[in-house]
Amino acid sequence: MRAVSVAAPRGFDLSQLARTWELLLLLTARDVKLRYEGTILGFLWTLAKPLLLALVFSFALSKVLRIDVGDAPYVLFLLSALFPWTWFQSSVQFSAGSFSNNAALLKKVYFPRFVLPFSAITSQLIHFLLSIPILALLLLAADFSPGPEWLLGVPLLMAIQLLMLAGAVLLVASFNVFLRDLEHLVEVLMLLWLYLTPILYPLSLVKERIGSVIYLNPMASLIQAWRDLFLYDQLPGVDIWPALLFAGIALVAGSIAFKTLEGQFEVAL
């Protein structure tokens, strides 16, 4: 990997921004390559996992428990939320060891260290973007035609999720340098978060029982916004505010944690 700089820069100019962007692209390409190196199906595994999961839950929840999800086939109902959730979950989990797993690199040269966890976000973003055409084809096959609202809604929701992830990965990766058990704890917490978020079941079902308390889970509003866009071509409305609030809080908290702990990484590693 080509080093960006051997000493911390005093300022930040356009050339530094270009080098940082170049490094992010290199790390993203490395992450994608290493993940599928030696596999036969390669990227198809990224699609196979949520598709197989959707088929399993489709049988268990729609056929056995008979959960009513409206007019959409349960598989599409699930995939419309599972694809963006997979981007979120995988980004957080893969970023947890970004600093601790690159200790040798951090000690050798200076470069903007935040690109390490950010590369986890961008590599998973590539997988998410490639899953959208697959979802669109499945929707077309079921007479759910993607509308022009996608052109505005997808970038908008992506921007919100990117902000949310930027703060989350900085927070998790920074603390994981000092608390290595956090990496394993995050995996468990993300699984619990999956079941607490209206992915396998409709948001309306939860609101009937606990009301607006569901919005204490910021991913509930974001996932519902993705589902409304993909299935019904609805742009996000005011109900997206919990996700926006959480994105702002996460970004501030993650930035503070990273700036505070960054100088101690070499000692801890």
Write the layout of secondary structure elements.
Layout: H1 14-36, H2 44-64, H3 74-95, H4 103-108, H5 115-141, H6 149-176, H7 182-196, H8 203-210, H9 218-232, H10 241-261, H11 265-268
Give descriptors for this structure.
mainly alpha, 71% helix, single chain, 269 residues
Could you give a short description of this structure?
This protein has 269 residues and is mainly alpha-helical. The chain has 11 helices and no strands. It has helices spanning 14-36, 44-64, 74-95, 103-108, 115-141, 149-176, 182-196, 203-210, 218-232, 241-261, 265-268.
Instruction: Estimate the global geometry from the Cα principal axes.
Output: globular
Largest sheet at a glance? Answer: none
Following the backbone from N to C, one meets helices and strands in this order, namely HHHHHHHHHHH
Radius of gyration: 20 Å
Q: Which structural class should the secondary elements be placed in?
A: mainly alpha
> What is the mean predicted local confidence, pLDDT?
85
